[in-house]
Amino acid sequence: MQRKICFLILLLSGTFMLAVSQQTALKTNVVFWATTTPNAGVEVGIGRKFTLDIWGAYNAWKYPDDMKLNLYLFQPEVRYWFCRKFEGHFVGLHGHYGHFNIGQIPFISGLKDYVLRGNLYGGGITYGYHWALGERWGLEAMIGAGYASMEYDKLRCAECAERVGSYTRNYFGPTRIGFSVIYFLR
C-alpha cells in the first residue's frame, strides 16, 4: 500500500512539473546506481531562489546467495539557492521515509548472517553545488546530515524468517549523499 502511495505522489508530481517545464529538472543520483538502486527525481522552481526537489529510489533486485538489498526511499527537499535557482551553491531542508529489507551481505560483518526488515523516517539539512553543462544538462553534488528513526526486525535468515528481535534505533549523522546528472525541461 505504501509503495502505491509513493508511486502516486511521484506520478502526480511529475504531471505538475511538466506543466511548469521552464523551471523543471529531471535527475538521477549516480551514487545510488553504484549500489544497483534505480532512482529518479524531479525538481521544480517555486520562487526566484527556491526549488522543491522530490526524489525516490526503489531496489527490488534478486541477488545470488540470498543477499538482500531491497528498499524504497522517498526524500523530498526544499532548497534555497544563494545566487539563482539551479545555479551554484544551495542549502536544503529534507525529510525521508523508507522501507528496507537488507542482509546476508558477505562483505559487511554485522549483516553476514542476519536480515534487517523495517521502516525509517526523519529529516535533516543539505548542502550542495550545481554545475551547468550547457542549456539542458547539469551536475550536482550534495551531502546532508540529520536524524533518522528506524524500527526493524532482525531475522536469522530470509526464508525461515526466524525473528531474533525487534529494535528501534535513533541515528544522528549523514542522511543524504549524492552526485546527480540533471536534465532540464525547457
Structure explained in plain terms:
- Residues 17-21 have low confidence and may be disordered.
- This protein has helices at 2-19, 30-33; strands at 24-29, 39-45, 50-59, 68-81, 88-103, 115-132, 137-155, 163-185.
- The protein is elongated and about 55 Å long.
- 12% of the residues lie in helices and 61% in strands.
- The protein has 186 residues and is mainly beta.
- It has an 8-stranded antiparallel barrel.
List the helices and strands and how they pair.
Elements: H1 2-19, E1 24-29, H2 30-33, E2 39-45, E3 50-59, E4 68-81, E5 88-103, E6 115-132, E7 137-155, E8 163-185
Antiparallel strand pairs: 1-2, 1-8, 2-3, 3-4, 4-5, 5-6, 6-7, 7-8
